[in-house]
């Protein structure tokens, strides 16, 4: 992970001081005619290829220990992308592996306590684009189904701020009670207010008493300023009126969950519509059911006793649902492996290995029995065949030490579906209503996927194919 914030020139200067190497001596050791080129690199001048060449020469001359090489390689990427953009990309990487940049301050944690205890609450979050905050609010909303939340986000032209906003939204967008609206910041009289970070909620306790709470997030010391007053004074309604009139455009809509097989069919139908005619990028820990050949999946569902998981459904009714399900499944399978559109996937190698060993997905889907060894071989062979022949399935594996904990699907010019991986794959799901519809945010994720995640966090396509083949050899050798 790019946790350090040094540019290549800064990291190189630090290494030179620690190693007692002068610019002249370094130039001599790495094949430069004079120290001028080294000095230019230290000043972050010149083209990026010059920095890459110097690092490669340092490696070839065996001048760096592994820790120094890793530090310079990270700094090289910061210089390539730019410090501001690199900080934003670090935010996305932390989200994907479930690592927080920092914990909530004690004062902010205490300010959220009334929400945890309230019988019902309405929540307004203005900006507050910190993943650790929206993750905490996500947990509160899941524990308190009577709570609802509206998130208003102002973004400017800063890629770092936009990425922070994207990550904060993706961390909570899957919750039914969450709605988000986004506005592009522009000079007017309201910018000072609408650019602030604040949380306001009106909460009703178990005695029916309602209280409005305003929480202001400061800049430096990370302590929250909290003001509380009776709801009859109208603080919450006043602030909400300002936000509603603030030219925010809906981006994620609140919704009600569905129950039963219809929700699964609806999810497949909606994802089919999203994928049609769109380039797509996906970060996903596990194999997805739409990437399993239809005949194999049908056998696993039939043998899994799908009727037992939906009491009250007759065999005829379930057969009709399955027919519709497999119609959309076939469309998505073709889109994944045969489409001429760009398909990018990053998958966790450890999760795939667990699937190979057990025949089950990480995310529980109890209506599907474990896949047999022969079925697992067929599933992986299809991946390998498409990877080898350059079909519609450019699959690569995550190479970071931390495993993936977030699943994200991005559809070009449409939007993004995201949820914690452990919450994916359940029986009662509805992806249609948890999509972030915002072209700029989708484009931002695509840029980071292509220029950062695939470049720095995934092993190469050829290495991915080798890993997949090793799993196949292991399966074929199984008794």
Question: How would you characterize this protein structure?
Answer:
The chain has 19 helices and 13 strands. It is an alpha/beta fold and 479 residues long. It has three domains: 8-81; 106-252, Endonuclease, Chain A (2-Layer Sandwich); 261-476, no CATH class. The protein has a seven-stranded mixed β-sheet, with helices on both faces. Mean pLDDT is 87; it is low at 425-432.
Structure class: alpha/beta
The assembly state of the depicted protein chains is single chain
Instruction: Please report the total strand number as a whole number.
Output: 13
What proportion of the residues is helical, as a percent range? 40-55%
- Neighbour order of strands in the largest sheet: 6-5-4-1-2-3-7
Determine the strand fraction and express it as a percent band: 15-25%
Give the uncertain stretches in residue-range form.
425-432
Q: Name the overall outline.
A: flat
């Amino acid at each position: 992970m790019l946790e350090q914030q040094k540019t290549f020139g800064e990291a190189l200067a630090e290494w030179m001081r620690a190693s007692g190497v002068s610019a002249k001596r370094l130039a001599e050791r790495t094949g430069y005619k004079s120290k001028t080129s080294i000095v230019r690199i230290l000043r972050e001048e010149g083209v990026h290829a010059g920095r890459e060449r110097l690092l490669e020469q340092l490696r070839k001359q065996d001048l760096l220990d592994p820790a120094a090489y890793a530090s310079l390689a990270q700094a090289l990427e910061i210089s390539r992308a730019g410090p501001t953009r690199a900080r934003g990309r670090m935010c996305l990487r932390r989200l994907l592996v479930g690592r927080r940049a920092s914990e909530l301050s004690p004062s902010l944690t205490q300010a959220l306590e009334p929400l945890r205890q309230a019988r019902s609450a309405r929540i307004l979050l203005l900006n507050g684009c910190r993943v650790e905050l929206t993750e905490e609010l996500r947990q509160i909303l899941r524990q308190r189904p009577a709570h609802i939340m509206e998130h208003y986000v102002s973004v400017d032209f800063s890629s770092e701020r936009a990425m922070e906003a994207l990550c904060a939204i993706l961390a909570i967008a899957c919750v039914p009670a969450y709605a988000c609206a986004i506005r592009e910041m522009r000079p007017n009289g309201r910018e000072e207010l609408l650019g602030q970070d604040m949380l306001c909620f009106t909460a009703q306790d178990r005695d029916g008493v309602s209280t409005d709470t305003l929480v202001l997030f400061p800049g430096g010391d990370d302590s929250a300023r909290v003001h509380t007053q009776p709801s009859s004074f109208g603080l919450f309604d006043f602030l909400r009126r300002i936000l509603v009139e603030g030219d925010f455009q809906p981006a994620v809509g609140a919704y009600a969950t569905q129950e039963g097989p219809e929700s699964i069919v609806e999810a497949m139908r909606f994802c089919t519509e999203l994928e049609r005619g769109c380039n797509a990028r996906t970060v996903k820990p596990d194999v997805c059911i739409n990437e399993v050949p239809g005949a194999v999946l049908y056998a696993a569902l039939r043998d899994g006793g799908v009727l037992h998981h939906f009491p009250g459904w007759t065999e005829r009714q379930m057969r009709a649902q399955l027919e519709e399900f497999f119609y959309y499944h076939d469309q998505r399978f073709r889109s994944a492996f045969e489409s001429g559109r760009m398909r990018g996937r990053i998958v966790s190698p450890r999760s795939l290995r667990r699937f190979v060993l057990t025949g089950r997905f990480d995310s529980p889907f109890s209506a599907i029995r474990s896949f047999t060894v022969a079925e697992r071989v067929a599933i992986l062979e299809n991946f390998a065949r498409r990877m080898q022949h350059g079909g519609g399935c450019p699959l690569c594996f995550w190479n970071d030490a931390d495993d993936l904990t977030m699943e994200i699907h991005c559809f070009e010019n449409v939007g993004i579906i995201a949820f914690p991986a452990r919450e994916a794959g359940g029986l009662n799901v509805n992806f249609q209503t948890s999509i972030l519809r915002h072209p700029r945010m989708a484009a931002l994720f695509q840029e980071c996927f292509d220029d950062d995640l695939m470049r720095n966090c995934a092993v190469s396509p050829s290495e991915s194919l080798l890993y997949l083949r090793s799993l196949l050899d292991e399966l074929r050798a199984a008794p």
